[in-house]
Structures are given as C-alpha cells and as structure tokens.
C-alpha cells in the first residue's frame, strides 16, 4: 500500500489498488494526485469473499513506476537531512532512516581531518569496535583499507569471504561484519569521509539498491559538510564567549557571590549574555548583568566590548547612571546596530546601600530574611544601550538588610513564547522563599528548575549577591 501511495506521489498519475476488509468483502482505492494533494475514492467490491482474489475485470493496482520507490527514498532522505544542523544531528538521522530502510545493523560515519581518521558517530556496532579507530593516522591504516575509504567509487561486499578475497591484506577486525557497504562522501571532487553500513549476515546488493545508496551518499556528503561548518562556527563563537566571560569573580568583604551560565536547551548559536563583579575597594563592589541582541559571533564580540567598557567606567569610580550613559554613547558611536540590555548595581556591604541603574533589563528579585517568598525590586528602567546616544538612566537607591539576596538574571530564565514576561517574573519571585540563610547554590538551582523556566529557549545567566553581617 505504501508503494502504491508513493507511486501516485512520484508519477502524478492515478493509481488503483484493492484491499481485503474482514469479514467478507474487498475495497478498491483509487488515488488521484492533484495540486492540493491526493484524493482517494473508495469502492466496495461486491460478490467476493475472504478466500477469493479481487473481482475479475478490476485493476488491482497500477504498481510502482520503475524507480519511483527509490526516488521516494532519495527525496525523503534529502528532506530529513535538511533539518539536521550539527554533525550529531546528521549521524542520528542517517541511523534512524538508513538502517531500517536497507535492513542494516550498523552504520558509522568517518571523516578525514589533518591526516587522521575521525569517527564522527556510529550506531549498531559493539562498544569500542569503532571508537578505537578515532584519531588513527591515515598513513597507519593498511593500504587496502585506505583505498576503500578514500576511493571515489562505492564498495559493496556481500560477505566477509568476498571482502577477504578482494582485499586479503585487511586485518581480521576490519572483516568482522558479514556484509558491508562503504560509501565515499565526496564534496567538490574531494573525499571528506565515508559512510559504512554493516550487516550481521550475508547481503546481496542489487543494482537498484546500489544506485540508491550511491545517490544517498551524495546527499549525505553535502549535509555533513554543511553541518561541520556549522559546528566549527558554533565552537568559535562559544570559545569567544567563554574567553570574554570572567574566569573567576573577585572576593569582596561582606558579600557572598554565586554565578551561573547555561546555554539554551534547544540547539542554537551562542548568545550574548554576560555578567561581572567589579571590586571597588572600601566602596564595595559593582555588579552587572546584561544581554546583547542576537545569537552569533557578532553578539559575543559586542558582549566583550560592553562588559569591558562597563568594567572600566565602574572601576574608575563612576556612579551607576554615568557608567551606563558612557557605555551607551560608546555603543552608538560604534554603530553595531545591536542593542544591549544591562542592569548595573553598586553595592556597599558595610552599609547595605544598593544603587541600581537599569538599561531595559528585567528587574532584579530580592529575597529578604524571614519572608516566605521573594519580591520583584522596583527599578526605574532606561532604554537599552546602543539606541539613543543621549539617553539617561535613573538611579534607584535602596537599603538592604543583612542576609538579603539580590538575584540578577537574563531574560532566558523567564521568557517563553506563550507567557507574559511580567507574570513570569512574578511567578519566579513567588517560588523563591528565603527561609533562614539558604545556600546561594541551592537558590540558583531552585530558580533554574522553576516550571516556567524548565525548557530554556535562550541562554541564561544568573548572578546572586548576598549581604553578610560584619560578624560573619
């Protein structure tokens, strides 16, 4: 029945088939392809029983046009691979689609990198059977095996005996599967790797099957090359971001600090979330948290510039409003066309005084001792950085008692497509009680596992600050 449907899809011609419906009659299905899909007309065939063939004179099926089934597989596989972003995605989709379609038991994808064989992924092989080859220099691989991997011609072995007969110098472990197909992955005329299918019993590769596998290898090679470029770009951006974030936060007397950074649960490019703590000597400390618009290398690079600018202005003793105003003028002069939200806090642990300036960032959450729930601190916001060069940033002044905890965060913690942001922030605050003196690590875990933030669609940064009394 699937073949009849595929025939209608690929040939765009009407196709008919019959099917027996218990207990005592046949049904005829006429499939008519059209511009909006396929229409199906169902007839009830009279005068036939369960032990009879379809009524004479009726067409029992147009059959699958030559090559329609193979073409369907190729088109379907290409469509599946368009959704693969990373190398891991490509390997997973190959295993999910190719293994059952061609009745193979194992698949492995290898690449050639810097003169070495790299195992990108595999499924269906015994533990260690493939990973042990990872990193093997190409010049250390037997010449027969190397020719199989690097040749532009697919190689098919119906049995281990055939493999031994054609390549007698192959080591025994390389001939372990009973049958194998080695499909070279060629991009722009150069081999980038190979896809290997393994069978646990002898398997005859018919001409049609070989043709489809060869075509699939071409589609796979393009998808794999694209995925490797994506992974390389993602690694560069991730490394850049990690290099621009603080390796360690300074120790500030009278202040306990804890920071977290978590990537999105859905795979995507790197973000521009950042945080920092600046020691200001007897004046206390300056804390900041922010988020640069975008998820790419440009966002990560701008994040480093913003953090450096704020750090320099704050360390020079500028008040929070001046720090944001000067950084804002810098960003508008750079003309990056990206805006940045940021919250800057100047905290004096000796007096408990906190001065806050906000550039379009979500407000902080305040956990006070003895309260059953936290609250959202009301901070007057200014516009995000990088939009208006003359923007002003009001300062909110408040006094915090000992053991008070200030939670700074980026919108990845609370923002979801179907939730109002203000409601999500309020719900997060209600879920954060302050009983006694909870460890900051525990409070961070509670915030990150809040139901509204369980599935993050954006990067998330947290910075928790707790005032300590002079006797602590």
Shape: elongated
Q: Which strand-content bin applies to the residues?
A: 25-35%
Unreliable runs:
56-66
- Say how many strands there are: 20
CA(first)-CA(last) distance: 76 Å
Lateral arrangement of strands in the main beta sheet = 6-5-4-9-8-7
Radius of gyration (CA) equals: 32 Å
Q: Structural class of the helices, strands and pairings? A: alpha+beta
- Output mean pLDDT: 82
Query: What is the H-and-E element order?
Result: HEEEHHEEEHEHEEHEEEHHEEEEEEEHHE
Query: How many individual helices?
Result: 10
Helix content: 25-40%
Largest β sheet strand count, sense and barrel closure? 6 strands, antiparallel
Q: What this model shows, in words?
A:
- 31% of the residues lie in helices and 28% in strands.
- It is built from ten helices and 20 strands.
- A six-stranded antiparallel beta sheet has the order 6-5-4-9-8-7, sandwiched between helices.
- Helix 1 crosses helix 2 (68-81) and helix 7 runs antiparallel to helix 8 (320-334).
- 32% of the residues are buried.
- Residues 56-66 have low confidence and may be disordered.
Question: Could you give the topology of this structure?
Answer:
Elements: H1 2-11, E1 15-21, E2 25-34, E3 37-45, H2 68-81, H3 87-101, E4 106-113, E5 116-123, E6 136-137, H4 143-150, E7 155-157, H5 160-166, E8 179-187, E9 190-199, H6 207-244, E10 255-262, E11 272-279, E12 285-292, H7 297-315, H8 320-334, E13 340-348, E14 353-359, E15 365-367, E16 375-376, E17 381-382, E18 395-399, E19 405-409, H9 421-430, H10 440-448, E20 460-467
Parallel strand pairs: 14-17
Antiparallel strand pairs: 1-2, 2-3, 4-5, 4-9, 5-6, 7-8, 8-9, 10-20, 11-12, 12-13, 13-14, 14-18, 15-16, 15-19, 19-20
Helix pairs in contact: 1-2, 2-3, 2-6, 3-6, 6-7, 7-8
